[in-house]
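Formamidopyrimidine-DNA glycosylase (Kaistella antarctica), 239 aa
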Amino acid sequence: MPEGPTIVVFKKRIEKFEGKKVSESGGYNNPFAEEITGKKLISVETYGKYLLLDFKDLLITVHFGLFGSFLINEFKKVNASFSLFFGDDFINFYVVRIKKLEKYYQFDQEINVLSDQYQSKKTQKLLLEKYAEKNIGDVLLNQDVFPGLGNIIRNEVLFLSKIHPESQVNKIPAKKIKELLEIIKEFSKASIELIEQKIWKSSSSVYKKKEWENQEVVEYVASKIKRKTYVVEKVQKIY
């Protein structure tokens, strides 16, 4: 499933259609085709794992799930689930889920690490108030706290901050939590360029790796969230 930085890369590819009118909308999983047709695409934004298409009085959210993708001015052999035509140009989305919001929904950009409005103190407060007794490795995949974070970012930032994923949130020193949040922000932003260069996964430190600097990377499946976890036991401390 695409993580937040990948959705930003998608946005950068699609935003060239901003300001253009939709001459036709279609797709087998698009109940809003008539409403979208004739409207101008005001802006393309992102929130977590969602692509946001703003048609002024109509907001369409696009979620790519596990297998979603899109092509610009190209077709796959299968039918598009959602499509937008701008005269001779078009975007075909495949295996995506779309939703409609009548009024511009106020996504909380203050907890979105890829937003200029991000406030790490708000995330830290949320962690301690609602998830204090949870394991940090589990909470990192909670989209209500960390929109856009997926398993790659989860594993990498915990390693970079030297925190074991089984650490309980309220036992991690405040200074260490602050450091983790800063690493999440910086890693997420840096990932955008690596994704564009198609070297994001291959440049990882521990994700799907067997060793790091001659030390074993232990792989296991986290019991509650059922996600593959990669840990360097001698580096990452359990709190």
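The longest helix spans residues 174-196. The chain has a mean pLDDT of 95. ok done for today
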